[in-house]
Design brief:
Blueprint: E1 16-20, E2 25-29, H1 42-61, H2 63-87
Antiparallel strand pairs: 1-2
The protein binds zinc ion.
């Protein structure tokens, strides 16, 4: 294939191939099976793939740290909630509490 294709925006693989359909052509990643826009000609399919690849790589790079930060916050919140649920709210009382009733 003489055309220069952008690497896959999803897995970074350069192992692309043009899949030929009845009425259209599309760039397809051999590694993760991601498929670009279907176009009538190979050149158009390649052009659109390159555009999508560039766009989505820019989009993927910017919001990711934010999302990871939110995920960490969520994880922390869930973890402290789980420990409150498990140990009850008497964590800060110093351990001198005697249970009145037994189960
Ligand atoms: Zn891929």
């Amino acid at each position: 294939m003489a055309s220069n294709l952008e690497p896959c925006p999803f897995c970074g693989s350069c192992n692309m191939h043009i899949s030929h359909h009845l009425l259209s052509r599309a760039v397809c990643c051999q590694h993760c099976k991601a498929t670009g826009p279907h176009r009538r000609t190979t050149e158009e399919a390649v052009l659109n793939w390159n555009r999508v690849s560039k766009c989505s790589r820019q989009q993927v790079q910017s919001p990711n740290p934010q999302i990871h930060g939110h995920l960490h916050n969520l994880e922390d919140a869930v973890r402290s909630l789980a420990s409150i649920l498990r140990h009850g709210p008497r964590q800060g009382l110093g351990g001198g509490v005697e249970p009145d009733r037994e189960h």
